[in-house]
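testing teh design pipeline on a random one, pls ignore if ur not involved
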């Protein structure tokens, strides 16, 4: 693993902020690294308020969208809320439909079948709206590139409002309104909203027209926080505000469906990481293993007993998903080994009976073993379909674009994409893709990267520092949990491996006269032999509290270890 240190912040800025906030230079340096350089910026960072949200009418087409929804509400029109089958889409549909239902609208929801319809606005969904005499479709987390589908809806006499966050093409769909902060002609000041976040801006605008502030929408922010975490968008700006308050709702008064999942997980307080690794996979499992509508049904359920039953059903789907993706990952690793492809620059594997709903997860798992751009193919009807995942610093979408003449269709972004091709083009594409990756991938992108904020001495680590660091949350892209490095460290003789296969490392370290302080390194069991040699080493870690048997102790969550290099960083 390659360690990269963030740029050392300007000393004058650090000292000025340290004095203004009455915090240590270490804390001030962390803040400056995050763009927090003044007292007011620190207030926004540590004490966000709903008043910090931007005026939703700054978004292009918002006036038209609000006028059309209000007309539908006044006229009692039936409204179809349509969304993608992933977590961002299903939470967005739950948010919009529950809001409209509370306003008394006759509303129905529609999630496309992952296998029969695929991603995005579908002809079947539009036909469903037409057959049920619905005059308005609100499409969430999709639609900005659905030019043909939008034209089809118009032919059926159905108005369309698009709430999307993906980058549009050269033309926009024919719609009453296209709400997308990434539109080139949209001057909305925050561009990183997820699909559910754009949906929230629409209901915020609807409430504003009624003379209400964003505080009336607090009960919907549990859904927005889950979407932000699941969609891996930056937790900066508005996303930070929405996540901050969304976590408060989740931890105090979540909707029955989310409460049912929390009850099953037996966890007291949820952070963003819990949303990403506990809640999101369960909601995603519905669309992967059965149908995304199951996730919407859970998230909109009002009866706690029914919600508990639905949560148990989704939990069972998630358990089946885990078994399936583990079996597929084992088969893919065996295929790579048997075909002598362990030293390639890319991973491209195919088996016709692999579960289409899980191939994206398998691609991510393969990167854990072979850190390189990865595609996992399966058969889908008379075509082959793949999910693509990339590594840091490599644009997999651009690589696919260079091979696009081999493909039927593809879409996505820098680090994740999907594609289909004719079976007879598979081997040609595999060779072309490997050649393109070999030609264009930076060498450093083939090694996992660890970003370190600052070096620290063990005697600087205390309960006060941890209390302040806890206020840096919510953590996520754009605001990761601070990572420190320290060395030279010495083991106290406590180091040992733990876990069923000895995969993890427990240790306690000292530095000079400071310490000992305990640490846990998940997946670092292989480092035990290096520690047992007795030579000084350095560690990269975050700092956390370990609650065990009624006691709370500070603990290092170790990311990596390496031999100590005096004065050296890399």
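output:
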């Amino acid at each position: 693993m390659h360690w990269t240190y963030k740029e050392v912040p300007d000393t004058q800025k650090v000292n000025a902020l340290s004095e203004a906030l009455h915090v240590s230079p270490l804390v001030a340096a962390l803040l400056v690294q995050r763009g927090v350089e003044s007292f007011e910026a620190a207030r926004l960072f540590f004490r966000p308020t709903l008043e910090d949200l931007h005026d939703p009418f700054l978004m292009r087409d918002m006036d038209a969208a609000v006028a059309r929804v209000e007309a539908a509400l006044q006229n009692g029109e039936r409204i179809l809320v349509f969304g993608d089958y992933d977590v961002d889409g299903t939470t967005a549909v739950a948010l919009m439909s529950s809001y409209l239902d509370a306003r008394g609208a006759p509303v129905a929801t529609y999630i496309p079948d992952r296998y029969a319809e695929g991603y995005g606005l579908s002809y079947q969904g539009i036909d469903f709206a037409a057959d049920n005499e619905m005059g308005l479709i609100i499409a969430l987390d999709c639609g900005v590139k659905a030019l043909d589908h939008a034209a089809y809806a118009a032919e059926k006499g159905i108005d369309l409002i698009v709430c999307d966050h993906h980058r549009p093409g050269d033309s926009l769909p024919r719609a009453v309104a296209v709400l997308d902060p990434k539109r080139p002609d949209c001057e909305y000041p925050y561009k990183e909203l997820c699909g559910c976040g754009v949906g929230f801006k629409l209901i915020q605008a609807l409430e504003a027209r009624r003379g209400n502030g964003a505080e009336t929408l607090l009960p919907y922010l549990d859904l927005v926080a889950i979407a932000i975490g699941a969609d891996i968008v930056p937790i900066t700006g508005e996303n930070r505000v929405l996540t901050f308050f969304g976590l408060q709702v989740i931890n105090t008064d979540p909707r029955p469906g989310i409460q049912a999942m929390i009850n099953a997980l037996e966890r007291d307080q949820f952070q963003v990481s819990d949303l990403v690794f506990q809640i999101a996979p369960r909601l995603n499992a519905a669309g992967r293993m059965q149908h995304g509508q199951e996730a919407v049904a859970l998230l909109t359920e009002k009866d706690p007993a029914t919600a508990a039953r639905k949560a148990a059903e989704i939990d069972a789907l998630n358990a089946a998903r885990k078994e399936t993706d583990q079996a597929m990952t084992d088969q893919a690793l065996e295929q790579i080994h048997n075909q002598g492809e362990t030293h390639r620059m890319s991973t491209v594997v195919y088996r016709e009976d692999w579960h289409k709903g899980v191939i994206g997860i398998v691609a991510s798992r393969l990167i854990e073993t072979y850190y390189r751009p990865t595609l996992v193919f399966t058969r889908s009807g008379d075509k082959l379909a793949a999910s693509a995942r990339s590594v840091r610093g490599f644009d997999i979408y651009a690589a696919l674009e260079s091979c696009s003449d081999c493909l039927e269709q593809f879409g996505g972004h820098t680090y994740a994409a999907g594609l289909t091709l004719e079976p007879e083009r598979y081997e040609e594409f595999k060779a072309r893709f490997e050649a393109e990756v070999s030609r264009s991938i930076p060498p450093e992108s083939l090694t996992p990267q660890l970003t370190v904020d600052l070096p620290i001495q063990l005697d600087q680590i205390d309960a006060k520092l941890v209390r302040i660091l806890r206020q840096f949350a919510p953590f996520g892209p754009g605001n990761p949990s601070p990572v420190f490095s320290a060395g030279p460290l010495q083991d106290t003789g406590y180091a040992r491996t733990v876990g069923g296969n000895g995969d993890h490392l427990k240790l306690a370290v000292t530095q000079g006269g400071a310490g000992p302080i305990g640490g846990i390194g998940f997946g670092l069991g292989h480092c035990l032999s290096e520690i047992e040699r007795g030579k000084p080493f350095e560690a990269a870690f975050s700092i956390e509290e370990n609650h065990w048997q009624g006691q709370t102790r500070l603990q290092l969550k170790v990311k990596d270890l390496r031999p100590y290099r005096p004065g050296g960083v890399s």
